[in-house]
């Protein structure tokens, strides 16, 4: 099977994985949001940055180093596994002893027992990270899809049962623990790792030399992505943070999920052709165009339907999250573009440049934080939009120089998709304001009309990414029809 065929097959399963998971998480999330309060979501949001930073140290860029290495040895896998596990244990202990201080900072005594229990997720995840690498490296996203769907459905069910029984925020805590535990167990069942428990100093030095720079980059990334949770949780209220968390979660359901799907498949696929610049540029250019088309379409659509989306699905007690969702959706357009540009630096072996760019782009966010403190959450999100645009311009310019894909060429490639998506958003916003129906029914009508708009206008104006997606879908459909006959 050729690289292109394996990539398309991997993308198909990755989309199935994410689609199935998002449907299940979406349904569970609606039920939980109706059972729980914004304040209870806010308590979990206060801890987001601490858990993300701990997970970043556990991963340390080692998974990418193993994926990028053509033939990693058993010693490589074993060494990274041991480092991950011991790092996970260390950071759980660090969080455990820091719990009183974190609780004092946010003035929330409930955080102490939550950290003690939910912190075990760090150790559980550490055990499963290296075991996932062979599946990702071989583009076996069918197995990964099966694992994630099972763990999401079962953990969501546990959370709903606990929420119905009145466990409040603990239903969210045990959802995280159950999901991590099931995922780790299933990964080991599928991969049946046989690398042993041997620490190799040579393997560690080689992998750490590459992964350490990614670790530093990701520390800035996760601090940047989650600093807003700290600011809102400290200077506003748990309720305000809960509203922001829910809006940001819905934005991520489309933007970050789409990025994760494309990243998980494109990184190992592009890594195979990293020494062929002409081929790499062609593949990467198509990736940028397709990513922009899909992300911008989803994000402008979500922004335009935010009022009916929130009111119809999780109820009026979350109404104050509507303006957050409208603005965050626009910011979400540039998140995938920023990071797929950074991927070129990693693929070409420039992890040092990756780190420097992460530092630069995250420093750009400081004014947005200051404005949030002075003028409130909505003003902060507006600044966040401009921050992500600037981040994208910086990273696209840097990565483009490595493969002769200059910024002006990339902007010319993505502009048609952004203009199309903005037109879709304007259309849906006008339609939504004119509909005299209850929110849920109005959202359904907007969804149907939006889907029809995408198909008809994209096909009429021959938008390139749409035509390529259409070709892939038709090929898969015709292949299945032939096999049946």
Short description:
With 485 residues, the protein is mostly helical.
Write a concise keyword list for the protein shown above.
485 residues; mainly alpha
Overview of the molecule:
This protein is an all-alpha fold and 485 residues long. It folds into 2 domains: 1-215, no CATH class; 236-485, no CATH class. It has helices at residues 3-35, 38-46, 48-59, 62-68, 74-106, 111-118, 120-137, 141-164, 169-191, 201-235, 238-271, 277-304, 306-313, 322-331, 334-347, 351-363, 366-375, 377-402, 407-434, 439-460, 464-484. It starts with a helix and ends with a helix. The mean pLDDT is 83.
Layout of helices and strands, plus pairs?
Elements: H1 3-35, H2 38-46, H3 48-59, H4 62-68, H5 74-106, H6 111-118, H7 120-137, H8 141-164, H9 169-191, H10 201-235, H11 238-271, H12 277-304, H13 306-313, H14 322-331, H15 334-347, H16 351-363, H17 366-375, H18 377-402, H19 407-434, H20 439-460, H21 464-484
Helix pairs in contact: 1-8, 1-11, 2-10, 2-11, 3-5, 3-7, 3-10, 4-7, 4-10, 5-6, 5-7, 5-10, 7-9, 8-9, 10-16, 11-12, 11-14, 11-15, 12-14, 12-15, 12-19, 12-21, 13-14, 13-20, 14-18, 15-16, 15-18, 17-18, 19-20
């Amino acid at each position: 099977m050729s690289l292109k065929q394996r990539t398309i097959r991997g993308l198909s399963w990755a989309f199935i994985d994410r689609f199935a998971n998002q449907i299940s998480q979406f349904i569970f999330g609606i039920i939980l949001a109706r059972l729980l309060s914004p304040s209870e979501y806010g308590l979990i949001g206060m801890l987001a940055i601490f858990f993300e930073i701990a997970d970043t140290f556990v991963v340390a860029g080692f998974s990418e180093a193993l994926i990028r290495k053509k033939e990693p040895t058993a010693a490589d896998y074993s060494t990274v596994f041991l480092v991950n596990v011991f790092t996970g244990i260390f950071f759980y202990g660090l969080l455990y002893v820091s719990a009183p201080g974190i609780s004092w900072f946010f003035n929330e005594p409930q955080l102490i027992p939550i950290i003690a229990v939910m912190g075990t997720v760090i150790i559980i995840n550490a055990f499963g990270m290296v075991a996932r690498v062979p599946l990702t490296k071989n583009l076996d996203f069918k197995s990964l899809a099966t694992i994630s769907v099972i763990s999401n459905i079962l953990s969501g069910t546990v959370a709903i049962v606990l929420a119905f029984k009145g466990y409040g925020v603990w239903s969210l805590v045990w959802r995280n623990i159950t999901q991590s535990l099931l995922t780790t167990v299933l990964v080991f069942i599928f991969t049946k790792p046989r690398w042993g428990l041997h620490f190799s100093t040579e393997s560690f030095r080689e992998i750490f030399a590459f992964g350490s720079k990614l670790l530093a980059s990701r520390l800035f990334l996760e601090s940047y992505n989650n600093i807003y949770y700290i600011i809102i949780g400290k200077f506003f209220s748990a309720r305000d943070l809960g509203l922001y968390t829910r809006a940001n979660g819905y934005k991520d359901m489309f933007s970050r999920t789409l990025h994760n799907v494309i990243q998980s498949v494109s990184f190992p696929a592009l890594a195979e052709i990293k020494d062929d610049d002409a081929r790499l540029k062609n593949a990467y250019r198509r990736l940028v165009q397709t990513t922009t088309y899909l992300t911008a379409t989803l994000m402008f659509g979500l922004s335009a339907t935010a009022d009916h989306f929130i009111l119809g699905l999780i109820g009026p007690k979350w109404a104050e999250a509507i303006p957050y969702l409208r603005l965050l959706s626009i910011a979400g357009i540039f998140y995938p573009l920023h990071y797929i540009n950074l991927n070129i630096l990693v693929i070409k072996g420039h992890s040092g440049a990756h780190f420097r760019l992460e530092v630069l782009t995250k420093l750009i966010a400081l004014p947005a934080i200051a404005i949030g403190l002075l003028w409130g959450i909505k003003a902060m999100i507006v600044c966040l939009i401009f921050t992500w645009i600037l981040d994208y311009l910086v990273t696209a310019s840097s990565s483009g120089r490595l493969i002769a894909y200059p910024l002006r060429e990339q902007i010319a490639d993505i502009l048609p998709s952004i203009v199309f998506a903005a037109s879709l958003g304007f259309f849906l916003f006008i339609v939504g304001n004119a509909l005299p129906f209850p929110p849920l029914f109005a959202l359904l009508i907007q969804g149907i009309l939006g889907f029809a708009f995408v198909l008809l206008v994209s096909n009429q104006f021959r938008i390139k990414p749409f035509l390529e997606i259409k070709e892939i879908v038709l090929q898969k459909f015709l292949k299945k029809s032939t096999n049946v006959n």
